[in-house]
Every structure is written in C-alpha cells, then in structure tokens.
Write a structure and sequence with these properties.
Layout: H1 4-11, H2 29-40, E1 44-45, E2 50-51, H3 56-72, H4 76-92, H5 109-114, E3 120-123, E4 129-132, H6 142-145, H7 148-154, H8 176-193, H9 196-210, H10 233-247, H11 253-270, H12 296-312, H13 318-333, H14 355-369, H15 373-389, H16 411-426
Antiparallel strand pairs: 1-2, 3-4
InterPro entries: 6-hairpin_glycosidase_sf, Glyco_hydro_76, MUG_Protein
Organism: Clohesyomyces aquaticus
Pfam families: Glyco_hydro_76
C-alpha cells in the first residue's frame, strides 16, 4: 500500500512548505487554496471518480469547487490535475450512481413503495436532509480501490475525447437536485476545457429534468424526486440556475432563457421567499411556504442563477433581487464576527455540511457582476476564519468555520470550506 505522501505528490505536485503550521502566516488566498486542494485530493478515488467520505451529489459539488479554482488559478499543475479529474470522473463515476435509471420508469404508488434500491432522501429534525445509500456504497477500501498505479493509469491524457459521447442517463438518480448538481459540475468542466461533450452532457441532464415540469403547485416548478411528493426550493433553484448557465453557453440560447425566466417567475410566485427576504426549504402539500429551515444553500443557488440570467437576458429586477436575498441571508446566518452557520451547526450531517460553501460560491458569482463591500467582508471573514481556526495539521478543513476545528474532517466539510477559500481569491 502506498503512503498518503506518495499519493499526494502524484495528485498535486506543488512545492509545499513541510511544516503545516508554518503556513499559519500565509495570507495569499491562492496559496491557501492550493494547500487545501493538496489535502482534498487525498480523498479522490480514481477507481470511482468520486471523493471518498462524501456522497454522490456532494462529489458533484466538490468538482464544481475544483472548476472554480481552476478558473482563478492558472498554475499549470492545477490546470492539468483538474482536466484529468474531469475526464476520469466522466468515465468512472456512473458506475457508482446509487439509483440509476429511475427517471425512465413509470411507477404506480404500489411500485414506489417497492422500489427499494437503498438510496433515499428524507427530512430529519428541523428539516435537515438525510441521505441514505445502498448497503456498502460508501465502504471503500483504500488499499484496493486507491492505488497510485491505478491513478496513473486512469488519469493519463484526456480519455473523454476518444470515448463515446457521455450518456446523460448515467447521471440521473431520481432526485432532481442531484441530477442538476451534476449538470452544473459539467458546465464548470466545460468552462475550463471547452470540451463540448461536457456541455452536451449538462444539456442532456437538464432536458431530463424538464420532463417533470410542472409540479402540482401553480402549474409550474419541478418536484424534488421521482416520487413527486415534495416541491422544494433547492431543486427549483437548481433548475433555474442550470437553465441560466446554459443560456450563456449552449447554442439554443433563447430556449434556455425561456426556461430560466419561466422557472424564476414560478419561484417568485411560489411563496418560498419569506417576509425577511430569505428562502425556506419548500412548500406544503397545500402549496404554501412550509416555514422550514432557511438553509444556507437555498439562499445561494438563486444568486448564481440571477447573475447568469442577467448576463443572458438583462433585466433591471434580477440583480436587486439577488442583492436583497444575499444581504438578508448574511444577516440571518452570520454570527457577530460575520461567520456563517446553518441551524444544525456545528455538528451537521453529510448533506448539510456541504451547504455553506454553496452559498459563498454563489455569493462570489454575484459579486463578480454586482460588486458590493458587504459580500467582500463576508467572504474574507469566512475564508480567514477557516484558515486560522478550522484547520488541522494536515490542512484538513472541518465544519465549524468559526473554530475550533472539530475532528474529523471529510471531503464534504473540506470542499465546502474550500469554496470560501476559492471565493476569497477574486474579491478585493
């Protein structure tokens, strides 16, 4: 079995300072993010194309974070690493899809109850999302599935150019938010590589989710899952944001602008935005705001979508709406030092541990088109606190951005915190 030091040197051969806490004085945001990426990639599993210790949809978010870092950091080694990870994930991750093919099936209510794949999502206490996976899905043996020689073999070159066109159905698992996280990840990969296959994959995933429109509420929107038992914020925000992103990249711009505008209009009508300007988790069976937790990611996804739609089809209402949402969320979710917390914090589960990074990632995207000192303050405060208070001796980043570090970090907590480190690269 190879040591983690050998794996690290292969995956990201940056010249690193040997004494981790000699790095405490590092203030350069790019350098911080590079150190953090070195730590993150210890979890990357070349055999599965995913990051060990986190879930299927979480890995899509990890990849999106990597695409953003590659946008802002021109380091040739990082660029090479990112492109190889994209290519490897495209080839290998579909085999780990926890519930493939569900969207293509038609289920009766009886069949729904019998569709026991072992993959499911539910709401726990305070509406916290709980994802369960098929038995053994996350049990990955380091010595069998993560060998350096395997990584070297599978990450050579860019196999996507020689492979058959990727199949969008490989990325669908019956939960439409999962599907759309992957669509956004492949849009990010396209932005870095300009490989049209990545963009076409994102388009195919999006088109699959249009088939569930409309939901039972207000003749629009999509459901959370193929079970059609919940209309929630995140799935619909992701639908909107993916359409807006595609409008700025795909050939059929008008088609995606129309979808983005329709889904935004429906979302504003849905009532999920509360009187404080923040967004609750979803709608009741009667199609009214369920007043469940205002999770940080629900405040974030809409920001990136509005920034993209305003670029594709400018409208004087989009950026003010984004600013109102962003500032309401900052006020509601930040402590007295400006550090973000979700309601479940600091000990959130495997899903909610991803949420804060998604908010900061999209806040940075909004800042890029509508700069605001409040966004800079939030991003920098969180990035600095993560680096100074939420990091162990191996540069692993945990869930409590305010500190102290809570053992043990995993790919979800780490990549979420990295979203803040990456955002800090671009704000001044």
């Amino acid at each position: 079995m190879h040591s983690s030091k050998q794996i690290l040197s292969f995956l990201l051969p940056f010249t690193l300072i040997s004494n981790t806490f000699a790095q405490q004085s590092i203030t350069n945001p790019t350098t911080r993010a590079e150190f953090a990426l070195s730590a993150l990639q210890i979890w990357y599993n070349a055999g599965t194309g995913l990051w060990n210790t986190c879930g299927w949809w979480n890995s899509a978010n990890v990849m999106t974070m990597v695409t953003n870092l590659a946008k802002y950091d021109s380091n040739p080694q990082l660029q090479d690493l990112a492109k190889r990870v994209f290519a490897n994930t495209l080839v290998n991750a579909p085999s780990k899809n926890p519930q493939p093919g569900v969207e293509s099936k038609t289920f009766s209510q009886k069949q729904l109850s019998l569709n026991n794949t072992g993959y499911d999502k539910s709401s726990g206490e305070d509406g916290e999302v709980i994802t369960t996976y098929p038995q053994g899905w996350g049990k990955i043996r380091w010595d069998q599935d993560y060998k350096v020689e395997d990584i070297q073999l599978k990450l050579q070159g860019d196999p996507v150019n020689a492979a058959a066109a990727p199949n969008p159905n490989d990325w669908l698992d019956g939960f439409y938010d999962d599907d759309l996280w992957w669509a956004l990840a492949w849009i990010g990969a396209y932005d870095i590589t300009k490989n049209v296959q990545y963009l076409q994959l994102a388009e195919g995933i999006f088109m699959a989710t249009t088939k569930v429109w409309p939901s039972r509420c207000f003749n629009g929107g999509i459901y959370w899952s193929f079970k059609k038992d919940y209309v929630n914020a995140v799935a619909n925000e992701l639908f909107f944001s993916t359409a807006a992103h595609l409008a700025n990249r795909a050939q059929n711009k008008a088609f995606y602008v129309d979808w983005a505008q329709r889904s935004l209009a429906w979302f504003l009508k849905s009532g999920m935005i509360n009187s404080r300007g923040t967004i609750n988790d979803g709608l009741t069976d009667g199609c009214v705001n369920n007043n469940q937790t205002t999770w940080s990611y629900n405040q974030g996804v809409i920001l990136g979508g509005l920034a993209e739609l305003n670029k594709a089809a400018p409208d004087k209402s989009y950026l003010p709406l984004a600013a109102k949402t962003a500032k309401a969320a900052i006020a509601e979710l930040s402590d007295s030092n400006g550090i973000l917390h979700d309601k479940c914090g600091p000990l959130c589960g495997g899903d909610a541990s991803q949420f804060k990074g998604i908010f900061v990632r999209n806040l940075q995207q909004l800042h890029a088109v509508a700069p605001d000192a409040a966004y800079v303050k939030t991003i920098q405060a969180n990035a600095n606190s993560i680096w100074n208070n939420n990091r162990d001796q191996g540069n692993m980043l945990s869930i409590n951005w305010a500190g102290p570090y809570i053992a043990t970090a995993n790919a979800s907590t780490h990549s979420s915190a990295m979203d803040a480190l990456v955002a800090a690269i671009t704000v001044k």
